[in-house]
Design goal:
With about 170 residues, the protein is mostly beta strands. It has three helices and ten strands; from the N terminus they run βββββαββαββαβ. A hairpin with a 2-residue loop joins strand 2 and strand 3.
């Protein structure tokens, strides 16, 4: 399975991250998700799931920052267009790290894509797309650990892409 996200000179375009124009932000957070193309899913794939995590955030805040989780993406939806997180309702989405009480638990930005905002330097954002043999028994607002538990025994293949962004 292959996953492609368009980059700009090797970096995630500003529109989807910290330097996004104000109309692409909510409460100073970028909220327009980037397009994703999924190719060559294995036979038997029923749905896709994805996670977008900043492991480079660990030295900054003490934990990996979850930017986006989505599940039950229909196999026919192998191209997620720009802003699918807010405009499409064909799949469910879990909480990102803004939902955590340690960071304020802001529900207006916690259940969709929340773009990169590294304090400085380059952070690598890890996008993992999972090809699954079933639809998962989750509802909007699930936590990433619930997604990982629900996927056990159902992952046919996964593809990982590093998306660098400079703050």
């Amino acid at each position: 399975m292959k996953v492609n996200v368009p980059l700009d000179h090797g970096f995630l375009p500003d529109k989807y991250a910290k330097k996004a124009a104000p109309e692409f932000q909510l409460k100073d957070h970028p909220i327009v998700s980037f397009p994703i193309d999924i190719q060559d899913a294995p036979a038997g794939t029923q749905t896709f799931a994805l996670t977008l995590v900043d492991f480079d955030a660990i030295p900054v805040c003490g934990f990996a920052w979850i930017h986006w989780t989505a599940a039950n993406i229909p196999v026919e939806l192998n191209h997620l267009p720009e802003n699918a997180s807010r405009e499409l309702h064909d799949f469910i989405q879990g909480n990102n790290s803004a939902a955590g009480y340690l960071v304020g638990g802001d529900q207006t930005i916690s259940r969709n894509y929340l773009g990169p905002r590294p304090p400085e330097g380059v952070h690598n954002y890890t996008l993992t797309v999972y090809a699954l043999d079933t639809e998962l028994p989750l509802e909007n607002g699930y936590w990433m650990n619930e997604l990982l538990d629900a996927m056990k025994g159902h992952v046919l293949e996964k593809a990982r892409v590093e998306l660098p962004y400079e703050g």
